[in-house]
Specification:
By secondary structure, the chain is mainly alpha-helical. The chain contains five helices and two strands, in the order αααββαα. Strands 1-2 form a two-stranded antiparallel ribbon. Helix 2 runs antiparallel to helix 4. The protein is elongated and about 50 Å long. 10% of the residues are buried.
């Protein structure tokens, strides 16, 4: 039985946690093919990530970046440490 799946990558990304999206973006950057695309003049719309490793469902790097742009800033390690220390001082 062959079932057609209506895949909406943008809707999938909206349901993911911000850190998951950041890991997706980083995995694209780590991919050996990304360097080829970057230096080959390809745009982010042409670089894809398959979240399920299925070969059927793809999300473009441009979609991942667009969704991350809508999200609240996630503090890095140094910023998180400063926030924790400030919170501890207030107690």
């Amino acid at each position: 039985m062959n079932v057609a799946v209506n895949w909406d990558g943008a809707a999938y990304l909206r349901t993911r946690h911000t850190r998951v999206l950041m890991k997706m973006r980083e995995s694209v950057y780590r991919c050996s093919d990304y360097n080829y695309y970057e230096y080959g003049g390809h745009k982010d719309e042409e670089v894809f990530y398959d979240p399920f490793d299925s070969g059927q469902f793809y999300v473009s790097l441009a979609q991942i970046k667009a969704e991350l742009a809508l999200r609240e800033h996630v503090p890095n390690k140094k910023e998180a440490r400063q926030i924790r220390q400030a919170r501890a001082r207030r107690k």
